[in-house]
TrEMBL record:
Biased composition (Low complexity): 410-429
Disordered, as annotated region: 280-306, 330-359, 386-435, 466-491
Protein name: Uncharacterized protein
Biased composition (Basic residues): 337-348
Biased composition regions of type Basic and acidic residues, renumbered to the chain: 291-304, 466-478
Amino acid sequence: MRVDAVPAAQRCTYHVNYCVAIKHHSSQRLRFSSYSHAGGVNLSQLDKIYYSRCNITKSFRASSIPSFLRKKTQQYLIENVGWSFLRGAGNRQILSLLQKNSNKTCRAVFDRAMSFLLLHASQLNDIQGMDEKLVTVVMEGCMRILCDLQGVGVREASAVVAAWAPVGIFMSDELVKNLLGAEVKCENTWELWNLFYKEALIALKKGRFRSGREMEKVAWSMMHPATETAPIESVAPAEIKPEGSPVVLTSAAAKTSLGTAAPISSFQTAKETHPCLYMLQKKSKKQRKREAKEQKAKERERKIKVSSRAASISTVAMASRSLNQQIVLTSGATTNKSHKQNKKLGKKEKKEQGLENNIKYKSGADIEVITISDDESDQPITTARCEISKKQSNKRKRSSDSFAPSPAYSEFSTTSDGCSSSSSTSSVSLGTPQWWYEAEKKQSKMLKERRKRRKSTADWIEEAKKAAAERNEDADGRRRSKRIKALREQA
């Protein structure tokens, strides 16, 4: 049902319901310089301030503008925009942008807008006999002047102009959807305002409203009935104070009883209860800094762990490089314990080449256990070989030719009973790994290829001489051709 179709008798009930519905949405508070001592202003207080302002087109003259501008014009602007914000229109960032406008800039812009509006005051007061084209031009011109201020868009300018002239209409989301349909996206653009204002002027005439503010009040109360299930105080968070921004929003429920308010579960529930309440869930600057510090600390701990692992791997590699390294087998029990510990860390069965187990140490070394059957005795003998991990082998491949690695693995044999096999000495001789020979061959091949590609200094000198001779020949040929042309022209 459109606003202009509402009968005059039913409008009184909507006006009463409007006051009750505003109280349901009065949990948020707007705090700035003049209201900081009172803990901020809620929506019901700002609503009284907004509707108590008189139209300047009826009571003002050009000479009375300076006396009006002596007051705090920045506060006047913030009260108007804050009223529209707390009702669900606009963004919280707009309020912080409004604080950047000084009183001096606000006075200059207000002076221009008011003087422009008062030139056509006689044509803006009569709603039934107005010229729609002229009214749209005047209102658009006044709003464009107000848009020179920071944080003031089409919607915010319409809220200011609606308080100045009876023909001025606030472009609220509720009135836009009532006149243009519920499927229309409420955007803060001039194109939408032109469509909206044409329909609004028609509804203003047809419904015989006294002003645009009265029509907008009825439309808002139609969208927000007074018989709501629960007020917003039960849904709003206990206390929200975003630091860093000049405008601070808090909840009234926090002052009455701390901790009684239930937190909002998601943005969707906040949007359902109040279209503006979901903005309160945005993180403050202090919370973001705290999270960034925690993330940096975690990153440092991770880097320290990685560096400690790399250091342990490098120590194992350096120990294996030493020529005098020997592995001494004290008893078969120690070998059994080491095998049990290795089985806990991991086990991969391999059937190729007689490999059964491939166990990785935490330090980065690999152990391969190979079973070999004896012809003389039925008991199988297991030999273990300790090698450096693949990462260390890749690092060694990149190293220079001067590095000659020491023996990198050791072999020892044990029987199935756990006792060590008979050997001449307790220490086992160490040999050079196979990967080093392969790396040396690859490096030698690469050096040979580079030597083939290289050219001696004599070859470079010969090539330079040939190139110079070719250039000289080309220059001589050009000179000859020029002389021949000149002789022909003379002849």
